Amino acid sequence: MNPLEQLEQTAFQLTQDLLQQNTEIAWSKLIASAERGILRAALQQARGNQTTAAACLRKNRNTLRERIARHNL
């Protein structure tokens, strides 16, 4: 299983667990949690360099900065 398949499987299992605990989990909260984790990993990989993290994620640097601010990272 490649890393993206593992990610999908893990997300599936975690979402199932969350839904069993609380059936009213909003889509936006699930996506925000995933995005926060992605941003944290990219920033760690880039040693905090936002330009490098943006390039790694193939996102505009300003978009990345907006998302970082949104998640208080």
Description:
- It contains 4 helices and no strands.
- It is an all-alpha fold and 73 residues long.
- The model has no long low-confidence stretch (mean pLDDT 92).
- The protein is globular.
- The protein has helices spanning 3-21, 27-45, 50-57, 61-70.
Describe what is shown at a glance:
The protein has 73 residues and is an all-alpha fold. The protein is 77% helix and 0% strand.
SSE topology string = HHHH
Give the integer mean of the pLDDT values. 92
Q: Report, as a whole number of angstroms, the end-to-end distance.
A: 31 Å
Shape: globular
How many strands, which pairing sense, and closed or not: the largest β-sheet? none
Please tally the helical runs, counting DSSP H or I stretches of 4 or more residues. Answer: 4
Rg for CA atoms: 14 Å
- How much beta, percentage-wise? under 5%
Number of strands: 0
Share in helix: over 70%
Q: Give the low-pLDDT segments.
A: none
What class, by secondary structure content? mainly alpha
